[in-house]
Amino acid sequence: MQRSVYILIMLLFVGNYAAWGNPVNFASTRYGLTFRSHTVNQDERTSLDLSPEESFNLKSGFSMSFDLKLFEANLTYGYVFRIILDEISSFDLVTNLNTEKLNYVLSESGRILKNCEFQCNKDSVTDRWMKIRIDVDENGIRCMVDSTMKIISHQLEGFENVKISFGKNRYSVFYTTDVPPIAIRDLRLYNNEGELIHYWRMQQHNRDEVFDLIGGKRAVVENGIWDIDGHVKWKHCISIPFSEKNVQIACDKEDGIIFIASDKYIYKYNIKSDQIEKMEVKKGQPYKAGGSQLIYDRVKHRLISYSILNDSLIFFNFNNGEWPNHPTEKLAVIQQHNRFVDPVTNTLVVFGGYGNHTYNAELAIHDLDGCKWKIDTISSLLSPRYLSSIGNMGNGKFLLMGGYGSVSGKQEEFPKNLHDLYLIDYRNLSCQKLTEFPVEGPIVYSNSMVIDSLNNNFYTLKFFNDRFHSFLSLFSVDLRTFERKSFADSIPYNFLDSESFCDIFLNKSTNNLCSILLQEKESGFYSVDVYSLSYPPLNWTDILQDKYLDNEVDSKRFVYLLLAGIGVCLILLLTFFFRSKKKVSNITTANLSDKNTIGLINRKQFSAIYLLGGLQIFDSNGNDITQKFTPVIRQMFLFILLNFIQNGKGITSERLDETFWSGMDKDSASNNRNVNIRKLRLLLKEIGDITLKNEKSYWLLDIGGEVFIDYATIISLLLEDKLSSNFDSRRFAKILELASQGILLPNMITDWIDHYKSEYSGKIINFLLEKSKTVEVQRDLVSMQKIADVVLLHDDIDEEAIRLKCIALYKLGQKGLSKSRFEKFRSDYHHLLNEYPPFTYEELIKKL
């Protein structure tokens, strides 16, 4: 009986916790809502509506505060907010950085009552967070900008019907499209007693909506830019074209400066200011062959070119624009090698590479002020290779990950992709193998890795080296457990062996991860592309928000929930008491989703489209035809398919044109659409009974019963379950098995797909956590594990999921694995939130 009581209480609290969620407080992340302003047309400007469904009833007064950031631009005039009282009076904050003014304006029926002006020096307020606060009651308004306060005295009423909007709004006669270039965050609303009643942090969000952390009140955003999205999605900073291959690249990681040396010019790109300088080369050129052979010496502020075949380092003279003469370089024997500069010893360290049909494992060391290479081989300690990733650990040690090579070093003797990790000491030539990762396929890595010594992990980029049209994906490795974590967003990358190059570094001036790509864009033409990602990186599931309760500030609501929960608990206890008279089996390891029960989920390879875990398409003969879908056709097909599955409706031609060919004129867009639709129809014929039709100007899909689509199946099953009042073990097993295949289209990163991903993640997490509370699943420890695994796939620090995981493992007798899994969760939780979970492992299992 005591055990039953504990289980019920635990389910009660976990249920309440799941219903309201827990606000993620990423201490090191950037957040806020940035507004699109006059640089775009009126339809594309930003609005934030705090009262989209119903007005606020704020009795006899209220207070509002938020952080405001102003940006410099050609046009800076616009409405920060507009508050409407009873559809008669309005109170506005209007900014115009060009005239260095902030104005609080009170009006009634179109007549200006008060205009309270604050002077603001442009240089002192631009690009910094200011504190804005207003206190409104029946006698007037107290206005504050930082520590400066002014009072508007006027009798006010209409607090039972208050509308609040920021930026653009469409409220009848109060509408405005004048939006200033601003950002806001930490928006709080208080009642007339000073009690915090709503708090929109502007951090986690659902793209076009955000919920307050107190009672879950929904606010609607149109055309907003979420600053935290910069931690998820790579930003393309610049593309610099070249007609020559193998231009040389070096980085100043401290200040975020990228140097590019071509035959004719030295380019200097500042990532923070987004400014590029070009200096003509009057004489000479750097060493160059496959891969980069250029470094930047920050200590002496000099650009250095090197070649393993020549002892002399050469330095570019910025004063006269000349490279010194040097011997003509032969075919490099270390194409795509790894390199780094040890700042402590002022030493250049070069490892590995490929040339003359040979992979090597040589360590070449050169003092930046010395005159000779010191070269040793460690081929007896590890396989010779190239296309590896390297990271300086300090004290003469560095990490080396993966690559492509062979045991003998000879290209003809079974070369393969390598998935190992070594710690190497270049001073004494020692080598320690740390781990061997599971084989992922033809994967190689960026030239460098970013080491986070504080959290004992590193980040690097991986890509497929068996194809030209590849893509770079970011992932991290925990140096304690060697577990890898992937991040969903990717960068397109054209890999052409020695004629391409990619690298990653942490720009310390902006705290951004920066990736640099040298690639062939079209035959004979190349480009250097720079991308940026706010640090630390996150996944989309990390920043998705649901309505939840901030239990630190709304204790009353918590008490109501607790009292309601106690009532439910008493009812359940009585039910258990009477049932206990019957013979009821204990919790067992009976598996709702074992093979005998399922017999349902076989991965069909004929006429099948898989979206969960990654896109894979099979034709009617069982052939994988995924690669036949070009990027444009693939996106267009998925755009139509996902909309059709979710809404059962078609897509207009205009919407297709706006999404995929927005930069073209109408005729060009129409032509591109028709060409790609013809190609798509031919590909659909190969799949089987699936046809793209145009009915009443809408493009939609006619999908026959023989075509299997995993995402459509799971959505249908979830709807079926929602309409049913009974637990169906077979349906549950099918949903769980499908959900275990992975998240929706993890490698597809584009704006239009985000809400499909977030909606699916929300649906599957809510479904599984709800089912975890049923008696049937509570008795099935294997299914509990699977539920936890799927939820953690979408949100790796979900507290309820880790409870289920650890409890199931513990009860199955895997106590050591249970403890280690919790420790990893605890480490991830601390890494992301800068705090530890609110419960310990001992608290989790002490009453089991």
Please report the total strand number as a whole number.
49
Q: What is the terminal-to-terminal distance? A: 13 Å
Largest sheet: 8 strands, antiparallel
Poorly predicted regions: 1-25, 548-564, 571-602
Helix content bin: 10-25%
Radius of gyration: 30 Å
Query: Mean of residue pLDDT?
Result: 86
Q: What class do helices, strands and sheet pairing give?
A: alpha+beta
Globally, the shape reads globular
Tally the helices: 15
In percent terms, what proportion of residues is strand?
Answer: 25-35%
Give an overview in words.
With 848 residues, this protein is of the alpha+beta class. Helix content is 23%, strand content 34%. It has 15 helices and 49 strands. Strands 1, 3, 8, 9, 10, 12, 13 and 16 form an eight-stranded antiparallel sheet that branches. An eight-stranded antiparallel sheet has the order 7-6-5-4-11-2-15-14, with no helix packed on it. α1 (2-20) runs antiparallel to α4, α5 crosses α7 and α12 packs antiparallel against α13. The longest helix has 25 residues, at 555-579. The two termini are 13 Å apart.
Concise structural overview:
With 848 residues, the protein is an alpha+beta fold.
